[in-house]
């Protein structure tokens, strides 16, 4: 009512205002009607993925174009904050979800995702998977999930503002408290989850103490990778949790050598990103076709310079030269999907508690 | 008792009872949904869980601090406004205070980020003189700044009104006795302020205790999370139904206790008794007083007016046309508008239903107790936080359907319930006043039913009804609570869009969305008021 009196007293143009607002309301109401499917006869493949995958600069647009050229269908990417969010989303939706495929979980979540009973086997044969077996550093035996890229987590820094980066995780943890970093939340983001497991792999039962020190250094804990990396590029902190492959982006796109990944002596936690189709998919054949397509050059060539990760098949010359100059982790660290499934809840609870202190 | 023609108790009681049944069924279903998911809750175990304990403590702690700060700062501000009745911009300041009360939370939060963020105005000013403010916004500090923004204006206005009830005789006496400013405060101001304090502090505490949007955006991680946000995170981040239910029940329990406490201390409108009178206070001319008042007013401007101006100023940047050309913005605006109008209409219908019956109970049957009980039942969302209600319906419905496709309707429903207490308050007092004037006339002439509505009630009540509708629509339009749970790529509202833009730190785009939402709220408010309110006469409310 106070708002009203301000306006009432002040405006001689109240009639115009009310006419305008009535008009805008009417327009908006008509706009808000259901968005009709563009072409009714075309099939639609709905894929849940994370936001940076479908960003203009991400691999999504090229992949959509390439697949639509061969499938006579429409690919509908639904962006969800980050990888872990995709799993929560299909769990929340249960059997009544809209997705045909989920793309962007990593091996840390596969066991838990399989136990929801919502997913269907990928159905690809050993022969079909042979190129993957040759390119991927780890053996692939999963019958539900297929890998589409891999990489190693690393702290990326700006060498102009940080001249002596830490050389190990322990050095980072024990470093000065004003050494600010940007990290992600393991409850929503796969890099965040990766860091939690990385710390667990290095520190074991001492992880909570290490987290208390790390949390001191965190400027903020973001929901997803994109937010943290965006803040890093704006100079909010000199270091961000990302991938060993991130500097390649700046070398190729910006022609900028400023950003480096810090090599840690304990090794780097490895991430294999995966996709699977849903049991209740409304377009099961299309989903299956997409999974096969995912391991072909039409998809994989978009990965190095779109998602800035390693492809899971040998791309030969299509891999940018910048990838040769990156930190090569001597020791890839990884928990098995079963181990993560067994302990993720407890470790997240432990993390929450340590970080909230 | 004689019963004139046209008086059918059932017809009068049906709307209220129907609404009540609807509210109870909804709450019951939601509670049932929560309890079914948590068959065996061991409360001692819950209380021992360190994370839940931490969250609960933080929820209390931030609410206590916010209340102390808001009320503590409001006392000097209210006194300054009472002492200085004529200074340039006084009425503008009071109007901006009112504006702060109705600004959508997320818009105000944007304004606060624009002032206090890393790249904000304050850091730029500090940077210019070679200081570094650092990153202080995210966390407890940010939450407190935002809560003070919303509650300082409220508290200042309430306290100013109570100070204005001090009769002129008191001031004459104080002048004759030559009381020093300190004694004036101690013996005259403070007793009046103290009367208003419990109700005011209780209300602010309750608002801060259940605050969602502020904590979600400025909380900055697990360190500063409140119960309401923890319910959201348990559902949406972790898909931990058990934990979500536990937290929701805990929140519900604590809220009921606090709400009962607040009700006991009396409502805000009862805090001010007596006529407002204005008198030149004798304590306004001292140097110290002028200094203190100046400081208080400058502080209030900094805390409340600056963020509001930041919203207006930041909206005009080079991203303006790009954002306005984005069809996503217009789709969100359309969906927001549709939600706001539908939920406001629903809220008005529910409120009218309750009030029609409570009027009959009060003025015909003289069941005063049941009348006020019926009215109180409409304020159910003050005890059951909307988010808990949404969480319950969410876990219940997901068994049968894709909850996200129902999100649109759930948001409408819950927004309507959220606005209901306001509708009841605005429409209620007008309805009772009208009833006192017209009830006997209607009774003796046998005017009832639709005829009473169109001939007697509507002409008198259209203005308050339009106001209630406008306020409900504006509240719903600016709301960021349950939409955070149900929103998807295809179902977005403007507040959610703004939250996401801020979440990805695209502040230029966020600025445009914030200004757009603020303008939309104003237009919607004025439009509804003008469309349905009386078109003629001076209608000062």
Question: What does this 3D model show about the protein?
Answer:
- The complex is a heterodimer of chains A (357) and B (541).
- With 357 residues, chain A is of the alpha/beta class.
- Chain A is built from 16 helices and twelve strands.
- Chain A has helices spanning 2-10, 14-31, 51-54, 60-71, 83-93, 107-115, 130-135, 169-174, 190-203, 207-217, 225-233, 246-253, 284-294, 297-300, 303-307, 337-356, and strands at residues 43-50, 73-80, 101-106, 119-120, 146-158, 181-184, 218-222, 239-243, 259-262, 268-278, 310-311, 332-333.
- In chain A, strands 1, 2, 3, 4, 5, 6, 7, 8, 9, 10, 11 and 12 form a twelve-stranded mixed β-sheet that branches.
- The two termini of chain A are 44 Å apart.
- Chain B has 541 residues and is mostly helical.
- Chain B has 22 helices and no strands.
- In chain B, α1 packs across α15 (327-363), α3 packs parallel to α7 and α7 crosses α13 (287-314).
- Chain B is globular and about 65 Å long.
């Amino acid at each position: 009512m106070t708002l009203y009196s301000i306006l009432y007293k002040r405006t001689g143009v109240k009639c115009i205002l009310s006419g305008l607002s009535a008009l805008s309301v009417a327009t908006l109401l008509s706009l808000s009607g259901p968005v009709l499917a563009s072409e009714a006869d075309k099939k639609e493949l709905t894929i849940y993925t994370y936001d940076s995958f479908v960003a203009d600069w991400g691999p999504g647009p090229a992949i959509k174009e390439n697949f639509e050229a061969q499938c006579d269908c429409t690919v509908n990417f639904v962006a969800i904050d980050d990888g872990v969010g995709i799993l929560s989303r299909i769990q929340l939706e249960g059997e009544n979800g809209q997705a045909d495929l989920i793309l962007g979980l990593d091996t840390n979540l596969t066991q838990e995702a399989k136990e929801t009973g919502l997913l269907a086997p990928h159905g690809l044969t050993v022969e079909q998977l042979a190129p993957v077996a040759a390119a991927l550093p780890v053996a692939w035996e999963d019958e539900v999930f297929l890998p589409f890229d891999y990489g190693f987590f690393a702290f990326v820094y700006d060498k102009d503002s940080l001249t002596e980066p830490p050389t190990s995780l322990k050095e980072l943890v024990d470093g000065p408290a004003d050494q600010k970093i940007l990290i992600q939340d393991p409850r929503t983001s796969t890099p965040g989850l990766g860091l939690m497991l990385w710390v667990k792999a290095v520190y074991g039962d001492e992880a909570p103490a290490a987290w208390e020190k790390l949390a001191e250094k965190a400027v903020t804990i973001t929901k997803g990778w994109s937010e943290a990396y965006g803040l890093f590029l704006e100079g909010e902190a000199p270091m961000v949790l990302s991938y060993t492959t991130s500097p390649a982006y700046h070398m190729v796109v910006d022609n900028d050598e400023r950003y480096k990944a810090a090599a840690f002596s304990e090794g780097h936690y490895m991430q294999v990103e995966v996709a699977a189709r849903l049991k209740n998919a409304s377009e099961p054949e299309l989903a299956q076709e997409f999974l096969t397509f995912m391991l072909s050059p039409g998809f994989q060539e978009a990965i190095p310079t779109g998602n800035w990760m390693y492809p899971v098949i040998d791309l030969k010359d299509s891999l940018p030269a910048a990838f040769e100059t990156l930190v090569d982790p001597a020791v890839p660290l990884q928990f098995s999907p079963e181990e993560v499934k067994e302990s993720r809840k407890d470790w997240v609870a432990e993390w929450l508690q340590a970080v909230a202190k | 008792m004689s019963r004139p023609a046209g008086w059918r108790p059932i017809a009068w009681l049906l709307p209220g009872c129907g609404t009540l049944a609807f509210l109870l069924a909804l709450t019951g279903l939601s509670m049932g949904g929560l309890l079914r998911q948590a068959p065996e809750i061991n409360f001692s175990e819950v209380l021992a869980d360190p994370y839940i304990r931490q969250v609960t403590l933080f929820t209390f702690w931030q609410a206590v601090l916010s209340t102390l700060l808001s009320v503590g700062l409001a006392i000097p501000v209210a006194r300054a406004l009472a002492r200085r009745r004529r200074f340039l911009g006084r009425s503008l300041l009071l109007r901006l205070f009112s504006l702060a009360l109705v600004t959508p939370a997320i818009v105000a939060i944007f304004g606060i980020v624009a002032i206090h963020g890393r790249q904000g105005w304050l850091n730029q000013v500090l940077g210019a003189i070679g200081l570094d403010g650092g990153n202080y916004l995210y966390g407890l500090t940010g939450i407190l700044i935002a809560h003070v923004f919303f509650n300082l204006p409220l508290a200042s206005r309430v306290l100013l009104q109570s100070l204005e009830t001090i009769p002129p005789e008191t001031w004459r006496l104080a002048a004759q006795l030559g009381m020093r400013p300190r004694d004036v405060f101690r013996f005259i101001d403070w007793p009046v302020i103290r009367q208003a304090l419990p109700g005011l502090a209780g209300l602010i505490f309750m608002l801060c205790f259940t605050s969602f949007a502020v904590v979600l955006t400025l909380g900055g991680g697990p360190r500063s999370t409140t119960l309401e946000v923890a319910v959201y995170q348990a559902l949406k981040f972790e898909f931990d139904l058990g934990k979500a239910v536990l937290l929701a029940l805990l929140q519900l329990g604590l809220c009921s206790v606090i709400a009962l406490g607040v009700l006991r201390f009396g409502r805000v409108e009862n805090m001010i008794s007596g006529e407002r009178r204005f008198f030149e206070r004798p304590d306004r001319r001292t140097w110290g007083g002028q200094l203190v008042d100046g400081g208080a007013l400058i502080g209030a401007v900094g805390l409340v007016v600056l963020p509001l101006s930041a919203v207006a100023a930041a909206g005009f940047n080079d991203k303006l046309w790009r954002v306005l050309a984005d069809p996503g913005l217009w789709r969100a605006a359309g969906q927001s508008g549709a939600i706001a109008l539908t939920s406001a209409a629903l809220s008005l219908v529910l409120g009218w239903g309750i009030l029609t019956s409570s009027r009959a109970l009060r003025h015909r049957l003289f069941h005063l107790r049941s009348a006020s009980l019926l009215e109180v039942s409409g304020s159910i969302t003050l005890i059951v936080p909307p988010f808990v209600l949404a969480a319950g319906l969410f876990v219940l419905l997901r068994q049968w359907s894709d909850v996200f496709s129902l999100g649109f309707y759930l948001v409408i429903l819950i927004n309507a319930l959220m606005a209901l207490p306001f509708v009841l308050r605005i429409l209620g007092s007008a309805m009772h006043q009208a009833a006192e004037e017209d009830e006997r006339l209607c009774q003796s002439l046998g005017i009832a039913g639709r005829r009473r509505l169109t001939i007697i009630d509507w002409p008198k009540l259209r203005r308050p009804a339009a106001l209630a509708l406008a306020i409900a629509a504006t509240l719903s339009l600016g709301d960021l609570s349950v939409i955070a749970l149900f929103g998807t790529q295809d179902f977005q509202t403007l507040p959610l869009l703004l939250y996401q833009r801020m979440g990805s730190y695209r502040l230029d785009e966020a600025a445009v969305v914030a200004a757009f939402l603020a303008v939309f709220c104003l237009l919607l408010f004025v439009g509804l008021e003008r469309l349905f309110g009386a078109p003629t006469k001076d209608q000062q409310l």
